[in-house]
Amino acid sequence: LNEEKLSTFQNYESAVRSYCRSWPTVFGRAKGYKLYDEDGREFIDFFAGAGALNYGHNHPKMQEEMVNYIKNDGIIHSLDMGTEKKRNFLERFQQIILKPRNLSYKIMFPGPTGTNAVESALKIARKVTGRKTVIHFTNAFHGMTIGSLSVTGNSMKRQGAGVPLHYTVTMPYDNYFPGANTAEYLEQFLEDRGSGVDLPAAVILETVQGEGGLQAARDEWLRKIADICKRWDMLLIIDDVQAGCGRTGTFFSFEQAKIEPDIVCLSKSISGSGLPMALTLIKPEHDRWQPGEHNGTFRGNNLAFITAAVALEYWKTEQFSMEIREKAALVTKRIADILDKYPQLQGEARGRGLMQGIAIPEEGLAQKISKQAFRCGLILETSGPKDEVLKFLPPLIIDNEGLHEGLDIVEQCMKFVLS
Ligand code: PMP
């Protein structure tokens, strides 16, 4: 470790409280699934900007189109004006993503980030139903603004901000009580007027909990929740900010369960390039916004529309989905081998697609492994309420060699911390 670098960083942090993860270096450039620090050290990226870089760093076609656009005096910021690049993105999204899946949604630009998509979803659900309560789940993560934080199932994150303000109810996510069907609890709470649960406007959930420890809900659980929402006239909001854009093997994570949410939140990898962009997809019958009811300055980033349109090219055929699923199978197999080889870890495989990982019950061990991985050239994050889950989140374009190389480092580091 470069101690000098570490101390410069700490000095910097004392001046400005920036958001720095515990990777003590200064990164200079990145390409594909690799990052390089300013001393030229190479790192495999198993973090992918927390899921914002599904197509890798500095995608050549995205780079080329952005440079051409800037050189030709393209409009960078356009708020909610009509621009060629916005129209192109919208047409492609309709043609490549929605139409082949027989999905009908109004597409809204709620603001630049995932939390903006969630806020807009909560607002419209309350407006449409005229109800206030929103059901959310244990260990969920939906963002850091007051509304999205209020439906985040992590009391530590909520405490400092004094949320929830009002009207949110936490229910157990799938597998929270192993062996139980927790969807049935929700139904019981709704039926029992003594439960104190007001008839909710909506249920919000992630199909795989990205920050909450990579718990993946089973398809039948998701279908049961979707069915309950229909019968109780509650809107189903799927937060696909992290699990969407191909992360679990299909463009939308919920496709695999064959459910059709009323509202879908997308962000992170929707721009394809790491540029800020978010979408809220709303079933046409729920599109009740009046002008001015949800606006904001940064909803018209044309560079993001350009790279987002390039990213959609990946979804024109089934090929990309198949590749992701093959790579996911490789990761599943490697995780199983690691768990076999190191039974003393008492680890548990988590996740789905290219958002898998290993939960390690011994406190602090996952973080030790992640720190050691950095020293060996791998950017690896931990997730879960106690940071107990090693999270493998590489760009989806990573090749098998990169996956093996990264997972080899994980294994070496495990061996090292266990020795
Ligand atoms: N929802 C989910 C599922 C997320 O993982 C995140 C970010 N980790 C958010 C919402 C919030 O997105 P942002 O950080 O862009 O506001």
The number of helical elements comes to 13
First CA to last CA: what distance? 20 Å
Q: What are the segments in which pLDDT stays under 50 over at least 5 consecutive residues?
A: none
What structural class should be given to the helix and strand makeup? alpha/beta
- SSE order, one letter for each helix or strand: HEEEHHHEHEHHEHEHEEEHHEEHEEEH
Beta-strand percentage range: 5-15%
What best-fitting shape do the alpha-carbon axes yield? Answer: globular
Bound molecules: 4'-deoxy-4'-aminopyridoxal-5'-phosphate
Enzyme class: transferase
Family: Belongs to the class-III pyridoxal-phosphate-dependent aminotransferase family.
Keywords: Aminotransferase, Pyridoxal phosphate, Transferase
Protein name: Diaminobutyrate--2-oxoglutarate transaminase
Task: Write up what this structure looks like.
Its cofactor is pyridoxal 5'-phosphate. One of its GO terms (biological process) is ectoine biosynthetic process. By secondary structure, the protein is α/β, with parallel strands linked by helices. It is built from 13 helices and 15 strands. It has a seven-stranded mixed sheet with strand order 4-10-9-8-7-5-6, with helices on both faces. Strand 1 and strand 2 (34-37) form a beta hairpin. Helix 4 runs parallel beside helix 10, helix 11 (319-341) runs parallel beside helix 13 and helix 12 crosses helix 13 (400-418). The longest helix is centred in the C-terminal third of the chain and has 23 residues, at 319-341. The two termini are 20 Å apart. The mean pLDDT is 94. The structure holds 4'-deoxy-4'-aminopyridoxal-5'-phosphate (PMP).
